[in-house]
Amino acid sequence: MSDFSNHKFGTKAIHAGAEPDPTTGAIMTPIFQTSTYVQESPGTNKGYGYARGKNPTRTALQTNIAALENGKHALCFSSGMGATDAVMKLLRPGDEVITGDDLYGGSYRMFTQIFAHYGIKFHFINLTNADNIKQYINANTKLIWVETPTNPTMQIVDIEACSTISKANNLTLVIDNTFASPYLQNPLALGADIVMHSATKYLGGHSDVVMGALITNDDALFDKLYFILNSCGANPGPMDCFLVMRGIKTLHLRMERHCYNGRIIAEYLKTHPKIEKVYWPGFTDHPNHLIAKKQMKDFGGMISIVLKGASLEDTFKIASSFHVFSLAESLGGVESLINHPATMTHASIPKAERDKAGVVENLLRLSVGVEDVEDLLEDLKQALS
Fold it and tell me: Which helix (H) or strand (E) holds 363?
């Protein structure tokens, strides 16, 4: 197999893991729609025995994603939560996890309503100052789980600083890199042990597939995670793998437009009289902007806004008034989406905790797509009028 690990990002996105089919010469990786593989004799399965463990389409995608994150190993899962679940299964009763206080609602729900029942303790803290981590470390601490930028208030967490602390205390550092994508940020190069993606989002990029991914350079971690994947069965199907691999071929092009459109829209919203606050890490006054500038290539297309003086009813009315933006959960697709976190993606978090983290009822989250930005601006103007 050709090695594209030393090539530039766009070349890796298109070519890493993709080999012409040896039978037909097909340039696109075939969809190996099979549950099992014929063996000439017992134990001669050429690496493929049963499709829960391995599938050639998935193998190609995993090679591609590993190359994008400059990692040695990647594993794909049936969803981002399936990938998160696998990481949590590295832990044992009595272990403790330090994570952020602004966290995707699905992650919060899994941590507090699933794994907490198995004796795992979670500390939800402000990670914008990595030094805050130190006071929560004890003999039971095993893992630090970080989103950066966070969902939905775009908090920026210093990955290198977290890595320094985790390594000094023999902890595992996991970075949820979904909002940035590998195009904007590579946490392994900054000292992370595991990178997680909801590949549903920017990697797939077309709102037509659900998938998760984990990437690591650690052989022992990879072996443990693969054992969990194979044993517990949160594996993606080959058609989904094909779709994500196809989506990744334009990731660099899409991210350039997401960032371009995001910047123009963020700057427009910042001076809008009906907007109280805009969360976007590209602003020089955004908390930890300099860290974002250091560890990210650009600032992305995710923006959250707080509507000035808006009631919940007002917020609902505005959220439902768009024509180009679609009111929907998820993010990272080519189309622009608007989301009300308090009742949608973060509804599982208690209101007191949401308010504390800034996820108030008059906050809306925008996933800026790749449409013509003039049309997006016109849509914002009419919805906010």
Answer: strand 363-367
pLDDT tens digits, residue range 194-239? Answer: 999 999 999 999 999 999 999 999 999 999 999 999 999 999 999 9
Residue 161 CA neighbour count, 13 Å, CB half: 18
Once rounded to an integer, what is the mean pLDDT over residues 307-317? 97
Q: Rounded distance, CA 202 to CA 263, Å? A: 17
Residue corresponding to tokens 């402000």: 126
Measured distance CA(37)–CA(342) in Å, rounded:
47
Q: Are strands 121-125 and 141-147 parallel, antiparallel or unpaired?
A: unpaired
- Mention every residue, 6+ apart, whose C-beta is less than 8 A from residue 286: 154, 156, 279, 280, 292
Cα of 74 vs its chain's centroid, Å: 14
Cβ contact 182:199 at 8 Å:
no
Alpha helices (H) in 105-149, listed in sequence order: 105-113
Question: What is residue 183's three-state secondary structure?
Answer: helix
**Helical axes 238-248 vs 56-68, angle rounded to 10°:** 30
* Pairing mode of beta strands 172-176, 141-147: parallel
CA angle 148, 157, 85 (to 5 degrees): 50
User: pLDDT tens for residues 90-137?
Assistant: 999 999 999 999 999 999 999 999 999 999 999 999 999 999 999 999
Domains of the chain by start residue, with CATH = 9-248 (3.40.640.10), 251-383 (3.90.1150.10)
pTM of the model: 0.97
Residue 181 in contact with residue 251, Cβ under 8 Å? yes
Residues with catalytic function: 52, 104, 176, 201
Q: How large is the C-alpha radius of gyration of the chain?
A: 21
Beta bridge partners of 96: 121, 141
Q: Residues with Cβ < 8 Å from 255, sequence gap 6 or more?
A: 181, 183, 184, 202, 298, 300, 301
Whether 217 and 73 have beta carbons less than 8 Å apart is answered as yes
